[in-house]
Amino acid sequence: MAGQRANGEGSVYQRASDKRWLGAATIGFDVNGRPKRKFVSAKTRTEVVQKMRKLQRQLDDGLPAPDTSLTVSQLVDRWLDDANRHQVTPSTASNYRAMAEHHIKPALGKKKVASLTTSDVDRLVSKKIDDGLSVSTVRRIRNVLSQALDQGIRWDLVVRNVATLSRSPKGVRPEGRSLTPDQARLLLNTLRGHHNEVLYALMLSTGLRRGEALGLQWRDFNEETGTLLVQRSLIREDGVLITKDTKTHKSRRAVNLPEPLIAQLKSHRANQSALKLSLGKSWTNSGHIFTSSVGTPIDPRNLYREFQEICREAEIGKWHPHELRHSAASLMLAQGVKLQVVSEILGHSSIRMTADVYGHVLAPDRQAAADAMGSLLWDQQG
After folding, report:
1. How far apart are CA 346 and CA 332, in angstroms?
2. What mean pLDDT comes out for the span 117-145?
3. Considering only CA atoms, which of 342, 314, 349 is closest in space to residue 326?
4. Beta strands 240-245 and 253-256, pairing class
């Protein structure tokens, strides 16, 4: 027997078959004017009444009634299949799906979205950090879950995004390695006469990303101004090499080249033209500045393997091509180039990002500033 109901409780009753308490509230009307009902259940009457009052508050606030049967796995899968894959590149979509399959669904997949809490997400984040995953990876896991919940809100399936309310993991960005000036010169000396000498010299002197350097075409090179226009990257996607726009708006930029490198690029173009003429129809005219021996774009994976061999020959240890970018930034800052200029050359989204990564290089400059202020303000005092 239901008994007398307080305001906002809706219809509350106990099911005879299993003695479980049920509650029902009208949440709207269908196209034929018939009332649409939302049901909740619990072991006790008190729990049902609490659920009903919470539901009523959401309805009063104009929020949709949550789908209490929807699981995290179902929501994430629907988001990946129906929305996300049309909004990002195939490689990014694949990465998001891997995050969901390996991390989100095993931990939270069976949980009902309506009962998912901020504490659940914090617990997931904490466990992944304890398992040894990097901070950046854990942040991506949390971000994937947050995007799925955001889409659930747009679909009126979710009331709030508990992932955004959780705490993002904090971590100190590790300082990347940088070649010393002596190592950099030794590398360039080892590269003399190598078919990709100019490519590596460009990456070391300007900090271009590997994909940006491999995506350059001759129409990007302005011989008169000595500049390169960086506007695309060469990447491997679904097993195929393609070019795509740079990562961000600020990644699209013009880069001034050192005089020796301008001369090397001119010589490289002449050598490529001669090779093209000798091969005739066997040459693939891709338009890229840096190509294979038959004119096709260079596979980034092949460049990595080749660079390992060059480093061994130079006896400087094992280095990744991306560390040429870090080396370029560190060496420029050590030579007194302003942080803002280095940020623009690298194509960073903000100067803060540059400062976060390369702030340690500026320590001598900060001490010099402190010494200068000390001299100005105190050394003149008697």
Report:
1. 11
2. 91
3. 342
4. unpaired
Q: What dihedral angle (degrees, nearest 10) is formed by the CA atoms of 148, 149, 152, 156? A: -170
Q: What is the pLDDT of residues 209-263, one digit of tens each?
A: 999 999 999 999 999 999 999 999 998 877 788 888 876 677 889 999 999 999 9
State the pTM of this model: 0.62
Tell me the angle at which helices 135-154 and 118-130 cross, rounded to the nearest 10 degrees. Answer: 160
The three-class DSSP label of residue 19 is coil
pLDDT in tens, 16-64: 888 888 887 776 666 677 777 777 778 888 888 888 887 777 677 665 5
Instruction: Tell the CATH topology of 181-365.
Output: hpI Integrase; Chain A (1.10.443)
72 burial level (CB within 10 Å; 0-12, 13-18, 19+) = buried
For the chain, the domains span: 11-60, 72-165, 181-365
CA–CA distances in Å: residue 111 to residues 69, 72, 121, 164, 165 = 10, 6, 12, 18, 18
Structure confidence at residue 8 (pLDDT): 44
Which stretch of DSSP H or E encloses residue 48? helix 45-60
Cβ neighbours for 57, distance < 8 A, ≥ 6 positions apart? none
Task: Tell the residue number behind the tokens 């020959």, with chain if given.
Answer: 313
Q: According to CATH, what is the number of the domain 72-165?
A: 1.10.150.130
Contact between 105 and 72 under an 8 Å Cβ cutoff? The reply is yes
Amino acid sitting at position 276: K
Which has more pLDDT, 39 or 132?
Answer: 132
Closest to 294 (Cα-Cα) out of 318, 310, 278: 278
